[in-house]
Amino acid sequence: MLVHGGFVDGSGWQGVYDHLTADGYRVAVVQNPTLSLAGDVAATRQVLDGLDGPAVLVGHSYGGVVVTEAGAHPNVAALAYIAAFAPDEGESVSTLIADPPPGAPVPPILPPQDGFLFLDRDRFAASFAADVPEKTAAFMADSQVPWGVEALEGAVSEPAWRTKPSWYLVATDDRMIPPPAQRAMSDRAKAVVTETPGSHAVYVSRPAVVAAVIAQAAQGAGGQA
Length: 225
Description:
The protein is α/β, with parallel strands linked by helices. The chain has helices spanning about 15-20, 35-50, 65-70, 95, 120-130, 135-140, 150, 180-190, 200-205, 205-220; strands spanning about 1-5, 30, 55-60, 75-80, 115, 145-150, 165-170, 190-195. It contains ten helices and eight strands. The strands form two sheets. Strands 2-1-3-4-7-8 form a six-stranded parallel sheet, with helices on both faces. The chain has a two-stranded antiparallel ribbon with strand order 5-6. It is globular and about 45 Å long.
Protein backbone atom coordinates (compact mmCIF):
# COMPACT_ATOMS: atom_id res chain seq x y z
CA MET A 1 0.00 0.00 0.00
CA LEU A 2 1.51 3.27 -1.18
CA VAL A 3 0.82 6.50 0.72
CA HIS A 4 1.85 9.84 -0.83
CA GLY A 5 3.03 12.94 1.00
CA GLY A 6 2.24 16.63 0.92
CA PHE A 7 1.83 18.78 -2.21
CA VAL A 8 1.28 15.72 -4.46
CA ASP A 9 -1.23 12.92 -5.03
CA GLY A 10 -1.03 9.19 -5.54
CA SER A 11 -0.41 9.34 -9.30
CA GLY A 12 3.30 9.89 -8.69
CA TRP A 13 3.55 6.28 -7.56
CA GLN A 14 2.78 4.92 -11.05
CA GLY A 15 6.34 3.93 -11.87
CA VAL A 16 6.71 2.10 -8.56
CA TYR A 17 3.29 0.52 -9.06
CA ASP A 18 4.30 -0.72 -12.51
CA HIS A 19 7.47 -2.38 -11.18
CA LEU A 20 5.72 -4.04 -8.26
CA THR A 21 2.75 -5.32 -10.23
CA ALA A 22 5.08 -6.68 -12.91
CA ASP A 23 6.74 -8.71 -10.16
CA GLY A 24 3.41 -10.14 -9.04
CA TYR A 25 2.56 -7.91 -6.10
CA ARG A 26 -0.95 -6.66 -5.47
CA VAL A 27 -0.63 -2.90 -5.01
CA ALA A 28 -3.06 -0.34 -3.63
CA VAL A 29 -2.52 3.43 -3.76
CA VAL A 30 -4.08 5.59 -1.05
CA GLN A 31 -5.38 8.98 -2.16
CA ASN A 32 -5.10 10.62 1.23
CA PRO A 33 -6.55 14.16 1.15
CA THR A 34 -3.70 15.73 3.22
CA LEU A 35 -6.10 17.99 5.12
CA SER A 36 -5.36 16.52 8.55
CA LEU A 37 -3.36 13.61 9.94
CA ALA A 38 -6.51 12.07 11.41
CA GLY A 39 -8.25 12.23 8.03
CA ASP A 40 -5.29 10.72 6.20
CA VAL A 41 -4.97 7.91 8.75
CA ALA A 42 -8.69 7.21 8.35
CA ALA A 43 -8.33 7.06 4.55
CA THR A 44 -5.40 4.67 4.89
CA ARG A 45 -7.18 2.43 7.38
CA GLN A 46 -10.20 2.28 5.09
CA VAL A 47 -8.05 0.74 2.36
CA LEU A 48 -6.36 -1.57 4.87
CA ASP A 49 -9.76 -2.80 6.04
CA GLY A 50 -10.47 -4.01 2.52
CA LEU A 51 -7.36 -6.16 2.18
CA ASP A 52 -7.53 -9.93 2.31
CA GLY A 53 -3.96 -10.40 3.51
CA PRO A 54 -0.91 -8.76 5.09
CA ALA A 55 0.47 -5.55 3.62
CA VAL A 56 3.62 -3.48 3.51
CA LEU A 57 2.56 0.07 4.30
CA VAL A 58 4.75 2.50 2.36
CA GLY A 59 5.01 6.24 3.01
CA HIS A 60 6.82 9.00 1.15
CA SER A 61 7.65 12.28 2.93
CA TYR A 62 4.64 13.28 5.07
CA GLY A 63 3.18 9.91 4.12
CA GLY A 64 5.69 8.50 6.59
CA VAL A 65 3.77 10.21 9.40
CA VAL A 66 0.55 8.66 8.12
CA VAL A 67 1.97 5.13 7.99
CA THR A 68 3.60 5.56 11.39
CA GLU A 69 0.18 6.30 12.90
CA ALA A 70 -1.88 3.91 10.75
CA GLY A 71 0.64 1.07 10.85
CA ALA A 72 -0.74 -0.48 14.03
CA HIS A 73 -3.57 -1.86 11.87
CA PRO A 74 -3.58 -5.68 12.09
CA ASN A 75 -3.24 -6.06 8.30
CA VAL A 76 0.14 -4.26 8.32
CA ALA A 77 3.08 -6.67 8.33
CA ALA A 78 5.87 -4.12 7.71
CA LEU A 79 6.57 -0.46 7.08
CA ALA A 80 8.66 1.13 4.33
CA TYR A 81 9.74 4.75 4.46
CA ILE A 82 10.79 6.44 1.22
CA ALA A 83 12.66 9.68 2.02
CA ALA A 84 10.00 10.05 4.70
CA PHE A 85 9.35 11.38 8.16
CA ALA A 86 9.31 8.63 10.80
CA PRO A 87 8.09 10.44 13.92
CA ASP A 88 8.19 9.20 17.48
CA GLU A 89 5.33 9.60 19.94
CA GLY A 90 4.19 13.23 20.14
CA GLU A 91 6.18 14.31 17.07
CA SER A 92 4.80 15.86 13.89
CA VAL A 93 6.24 17.25 10.69
CA SER A 94 6.03 20.65 12.34
CA THR A 95 8.18 19.62 15.30
CA LEU A 96 10.64 17.65 13.16
CA ILE A 97 11.40 20.62 10.88
CA ALA A 98 11.28 23.30 13.58
CA ASP A 99 15.03 23.60 14.17
CA PRO A 100 17.02 22.81 11.01
CA PRO A 101 20.79 22.47 11.46
CA PRO A 102 23.02 25.26 10.10
CA GLY A 103 23.46 24.98 6.36
CA ALA A 104 20.57 22.57 5.83
CA PRO A 105 18.37 23.35 2.83
CA VAL A 106 15.09 25.02 3.78
CA PRO A 107 12.04 23.89 1.78
CA PRO A 108 10.46 26.83 -0.10
CA ILE A 109 7.10 26.54 1.66
CA LEU A 110 5.01 29.67 1.16
CA PRO A 111 3.14 31.31 4.05
CA PRO A 112 -0.18 29.58 4.80
CA GLN A 113 -3.24 30.70 2.84
CA ASP A 114 -6.56 29.90 4.50
CA GLY A 115 -4.94 27.05 6.41
CA PHE A 116 -3.15 25.49 3.44
CA LEU A 117 0.45 25.32 2.29
CA PHE A 118 2.08 25.33 -1.15
CA LEU A 119 5.67 25.22 -2.37
CA ASP A 120 7.04 28.17 -4.32
CA ARG A 121 6.35 27.13 -7.91
CA ASP A 122 9.61 28.60 -9.24
CA ARG A 123 11.69 26.70 -6.67
CA PHE A 124 9.69 23.48 -6.71
CA ALA A 125 11.91 21.56 -9.13
CA ALA A 126 15.20 22.41 -7.42
CA SER A 127 13.90 21.56 -3.95
CA PHE A 128 11.50 18.67 -4.55
CA ALA A 129 12.26 17.10 -7.94
CA ALA A 130 15.75 18.03 -9.11
CA ASP A 131 16.35 14.70 -10.88
CA VAL A 132 12.89 14.46 -12.48
CA PRO A 133 12.52 15.39 -16.18
CA GLU A 134 11.93 19.12 -16.54
CA LYS A 135 8.43 18.79 -18.00
CA THR A 136 7.38 16.36 -15.29
CA ALA A 137 8.73 18.59 -12.54
CA ALA A 138 6.91 21.58 -14.03
CA PHE A 139 3.67 19.60 -14.09
CA MET A 140 4.19 18.57 -10.45
CA ALA A 141 4.72 22.21 -9.50
CA ASP A 142 1.60 23.35 -11.35
CA SER A 143 -0.61 20.53 -10.04
CA GLN A 144 0.24 20.88 -6.36
CA VAL A 145 -2.31 19.60 -3.87
CA PRO A 146 -2.96 22.03 -0.99
CA TRP A 147 -1.35 20.65 2.18
CA GLY A 148 -3.33 21.42 5.31
CA VAL A 149 -1.53 23.08 8.21
CA GLU A 150 -3.50 20.69 10.43
CA ALA A 151 -1.78 17.77 8.67
CA LEU A 152 1.62 19.38 9.19
CA GLU A 153 0.89 19.73 12.90
CA GLY A 154 -0.68 16.28 13.40
CA ALA A 155 1.24 14.39 16.09
CA VAL A 156 1.77 10.64 16.23
CA SER A 157 0.27 8.82 19.23
CA GLU A 158 1.73 5.30 18.96
CA PRO A 159 4.52 4.91 16.38
CA ALA A 160 4.04 1.65 14.52
CA TRP A 161 7.77 1.24 13.92
CA ARG A 162 8.11 0.32 17.58
CA THR A 163 6.23 -2.94 16.94
CA LYS A 164 6.48 -3.54 13.17
CA PRO A 165 9.66 -4.23 11.15
CA SER A 166 10.72 -1.24 9.06
CA TRP A 167 12.71 -0.49 5.93
CA TYR A 168 13.97 2.96 4.91
CA LEU A 169 15.27 4.43 1.65
CA VAL A 170 17.49 7.50 2.14
CA ALA A 171 17.62 9.86 -0.84
CA THR A 172 21.11 11.31 -0.59
CA ASP A 173 20.39 14.42 -2.70
CA ASP A 174 17.14 15.32 -0.91
CA ARG A 175 16.64 19.07 -0.37
CA MET A 176 13.31 18.77 1.46
CA ILE A 177 14.21 16.33 4.27
CA PRO A 178 17.99 16.50 4.80
CA PRO A 179 19.70 13.11 4.46
CA PRO A 180 21.21 13.34 7.98
CA ALA A 181 17.67 13.69 9.36
CA GLN A 182 16.56 10.70 7.31
CA ARG A 183 19.44 8.65 8.69
CA ALA A 184 18.67 9.70 12.27
CA MET A 185 15.00 8.75 11.96
CA SER A 186 15.76 5.43 10.27
CA ASP A 187 18.35 4.59 12.93
CA ARG A 188 15.90 5.38 15.71
CA ALA A 189 13.31 3.12 14.08
CA LYS A 190 15.91 0.35 13.74
CA ALA A 191 15.02 0.17 10.07
CA VAL A 192 16.84 -1.75 7.38
CA VAL A 193 18.41 1.12 5.42
CA THR A 194 19.22 1.52 1.74
CA GLU A 195 20.77 4.71 0.35
CA THR A 196 20.53 5.94 -3.22
CA PRO A 197 21.34 9.13 -5.11
CA GLY A 198 18.07 10.92 -5.65
CA SER A 199 15.97 13.97 -4.96
CA HIS A 200 12.98 14.10 -2.62
CA ALA A 201 10.94 12.81 -5.57
CA VAL A 202 13.05 9.64 -5.72
CA TYR A 203 9.85 7.60 -6.00
CA VAL A 204 9.27 9.31 -9.36
CA SER A 205 12.85 9.47 -10.61
CA ARG A 206 14.07 6.03 -9.45
CA PRO A 207 11.02 3.80 -9.23
CA ALA A 208 12.96 0.56 -9.66
CA VAL A 209 15.11 1.35 -6.62
CA VAL A 210 12.06 2.24 -4.57
CA ALA A 211 10.21 -0.88 -5.68
CA ALA A 212 13.20 -3.02 -4.72
CA VAL A 213 13.16 -1.67 -1.16
CA ILE A 214 9.43 -2.34 -0.90
CA ALA A 215 9.95 -5.89 -2.21
CA GLN A 216 12.66 -6.41 0.42
CA ALA A 217 10.17 -5.35 3.07
CA ALA A 218 7.55 -7.74 1.68
CA GLN A 219 10.00 -10.62 1.65
CA GLY A 220 11.33 -9.72 5.08
CA ALA A 221 7.78 -9.65 6.42
CA GLY A 222 7.26 -13.21 5.27
CA GLY A 223 6.18 -13.20 1.65
CA GLN A 224 4.50 -11.11 -0.99
CA ALA A 225 2.49 -8.82 1.26
